Amino acid sequence: MKLLLLTPIILLIQITSVFGQQPSLVPQPKEIRWEKGNFILTEDIKITKGNSDLPLDYFISQLKFQTGIQIKESLEDYADITLNIVDEIPLGEEAYILTVKEKNIDITAHNQQGLLHGLSTLLQLANLDANVPCVDIHDAPKYPWRGLMLDVSRHFFTIDVVKEYLDLMAYYKLNKFHWHLTEDQGWRIEIKKYPKLTEIGAWRTESDGSKYGGFYTQEQIKEIVAYAAKRGIEVIPEIDMPGHMLGALAAYPELSCTGGPFEVWTRWGVSKDVLCAGNEETYQFIEDILEEVIPLFPSKYFHVGGDECPKDRWKACDKCQLKIRTEDLKDEHELQSYFIHRIEKVVNENGKQIIGWDEILEGGLSPTATVQLWRDWHDPEAVGKIAKMGNDVIASPTSACYFDYDIVTTDVAQVYAYNPTPKGLSKEDQKHILGGECTVWTERIPDKNRIDFQVFPRVLAFSEALWKGTKEDGFHAFEERMLGQYPILDKKGVAFGPSSQVMEVTTEEKNEKLEVSANLLIDNVDLKYKSPDQTTFTEYKNTIQVTSSGEIVFQAFMGDKTYGDPEKVSFEIHKGNQAELSLIDLPSTPYQGVGVNSLIDGKLGNPEKFKNSNWIGFNGSSINATFQWKESINIKSIEFNTYDEVASWIMAPKEIEIAYSLDGSSFKKLKTKIEITKINQSNHYQVKFKKELKGVRALKLLIENGGLLPEEHQGAGNPSWLFVDEIIIK
C-alpha cells in the first residue's frame, strides 16, 4: 500500500477538492446527511447550554483556538447555538443529534455525555474555518468502552501531558482513560499511610548515577479526575499486583518472599520478585492502599493488573507453600487466583468491580470480574470464551492495540481492521464485549513527542473501529478523512508519526562491495541520507556503494520536517558477504527479513529492537548454516549477535558448533572458546581462532535454539524464538 502524504498547506487544498465543503470527521458519525449552505461563525454568535448544566468555557476556548473567533455564552434558553437534553433519544446513552442550518445550530442528547460528543463533532466541522457546513447528524457509538491506557511508570509524565491527552481523547470520542500507576520501574501515586512508596519507590537510579522518577499527589489525582469528567472521560486506575511490584518492594522489602533488599528497576521485562501471597501483612498493605486510592476515582472499576506474575519465589517460600496447603489450593496458579479473589472482595466492599489482564483467568475467575484481553496470540478464541462464561471483556489484542509497537509491526490499516467482537457469538454473549482499549506502554517512550509519534494517527483508526465499526472496503475513504485531521493535529502541536512503513533498505553484494538501496513506500516525501563521514543529510538519488564498515542513516522529509523514524543501518563488510549460504530450516513467519541472505547482507540489527528486517527469527528451530565460497579464503574469526529477551519469548542459543572444510565436502569440527558480550538486549558471540584457518572452501555453523520456554514463563512449554542478525566472517 502506498499512502499519499501531504504537507498541511497542500492538505487544505486537497481537502477542499475531495470534500468540497464537507470537513473530515473522525470517527465517522453513524448517520450523516449533508445539506446546502453554511453557518457562518462570527464574534456576534452566541451559544447557550439550554437546560443542561454543561460548562461551555472549554468549547468556546477550543473554537477560538481553531478558528480565531471568540463566540459568547448566552443565559437564554435559545441562542445561535443551543444545547438541550431530552428524555427520548432512541440511539442510546451517548447518542446525540446535531443539526447545522444557515441560521442556527442545535445539539440534542439524552445526557451531558451526548452533548459533549456533539460539541466534539461541531469542533471538527468547524476545523480551522469560520464556515460550518449545514448537516444533519444522528450519532451514537457502537461500543461503550473506548479506552486509552497510559503507562506512567516506565516513564513518568506530568499532569499537563496527561491533560493534553484527555483533550485529544475527547476530540476523538474516546471515553475511558486507563491510568497505569505502578510498576517495577516506579510507583506513581501518593499513599499517605506508606510514605516510602513515593519517597523510595517513585525514584530509580540510572546507570549514570542520576535519579529518575516522579509521582502524583492525591490532590493532583483529584485534579486529573475532575478534568477528565468535564470532557466525558472516566478514569480507571491500575495498581498492578501481585507482580510488577518492585517499586513497592524497594520501599517495603518485608512484603516479599525473600526480604530483599531491592532497587527500583532500571531495566524492562518481568521481575521474579513479587508480593508474598503467603504473608498476611501483604493483604493488609493492599487493603490500606485501596482505602486511600478508591475514593479518589468515581469510576465503578478498579484495575488490579494480575499479569506476568512469575511463581518462582512462591515455590521456594515457606509462607506461600503453607498458604497453598491451608487454603487447599492445587498449586501456585491457584494461589494467584486466591490472591486476586481476596483483593476483589475488598474492592467489592468499597463499591467497585475489578478489571484484570487475562492472566486472572488462570486458577479460576470470579463471575463479576471484567477481563482485559491482551494475549490474542495465547488463545485466539479467548474473547469469545470469556464472553460465553458470562464475564465482561475489554479487547486489547497486541495485534492491533499495542501502540508502543512500531509502525512496521502495526500500521494504521491493521488498526482500522480491528474488531473486538469475534464472529459466531450470540447476541446475548456479544453484550459482554464492552469494547476495546489501545495501550501505550512506555519502556521506549520517554517523552510526549514520542507518545504523539506512536499514538497518532493510529488512534484515529482505533476510534473509528469502536465508534462506528469499520468496513473491509472502507479504508480508502477513512484514509482521506484521516488526512483531513492532519492540519488540526499540526495546530494542536501533535507530533504525529507515519501511518505505515516509510521506507525499505536493501543490500546486495557485488564484486566484494555492498550496494545499498533505499525504496520509499509512500509518496510525496523526500529521502535523504547521511554516511559515516557526513554531518548533514544529502539527497538520496542512486544506490550507495559501501566499501567499509560503518553506519548510514536514511531519513524521510516532509518539507523541512523529518517524517517517520530514521532508518539507521549499521554495515559490516566481511567474507560472508561473498558466500553462498544455505539453511536446513528457513526463518519463521513473520520474522523472515529478506530470507536466508539476511544473515550475510552486511546489515546489523538494532541491539534494542528485534522487530525489523535486520533480525530474522526461528521459532523452535535452530540455525544450521552452510557457507560455501567459489575460491578458498582465510578465516580469523566468526561473530554474530543473538537477541535475548525471554519476556518476548526469545532465548539465547543453547549451543554453538563450528566445522570447516578445505575441499567443500568433508568437514572438521572446531573446538574453540566463544566469548560472549552483553549489548543491551542482545548477546554478541565472538570466536577468535588462535591460528588463522587457511584455504577454507566451506563452513558449517550450528546455532542451537534455546529450547522450550521455562516453567513459570507465561508461555511455558512453548518453543522459544532464536533471533540472529548477521553472521560475520572475517
TrEMBL record:
- List the coiled-coil residues: none
User: What's the name of the protein?
Assistant: beta-N-acetylhexosaminidase
> What catalytic activity does the UniProt entry give for this protein?
Hydrolysis of terminal non-reducing N-acetyl-D-hexosamine residues in N-acetyl-beta-D-hexosaminides
Q: Which CDD domains match?
A: GH20_chitobiase-like (cd06563)
Q: Where is the Beta-hexosaminidase bacterial type N-terminal domain?
A: 22-140
Q: What is its EC number?
A: 3.2.1.52
Report the residue ranges that make up the Glycoside hydrolase family 20 catalytic domain in this protein. Answer: 143-469
Question: What GO CC terms are in its UniProt record?
Answer: membrane
Alphabetical list of SUPFAM superfamilies matching this protein: (Trans)glycosidases, beta-N-acetylhexosaminidase-like domain
GO BP terms:
carbohydrate metabolic process; glycosaminoglycan metabolic process
Where do the catalytic residues lie? 308 (proton donor)
Q: Which family does the similarity line name?
A: Belongs to the glycosyl hydrolase 20 family.
Q: Listed GO molecular functions?
A: beta-N-acetylhexosaminidase activity
Its keywords, alphabetically, are: Glycosidase, Hydrolase
Instruction: Name the enzyme group at the top EC level.
Output: hydrolase
A Pfam family (short name) is: Glyco_hydro_20
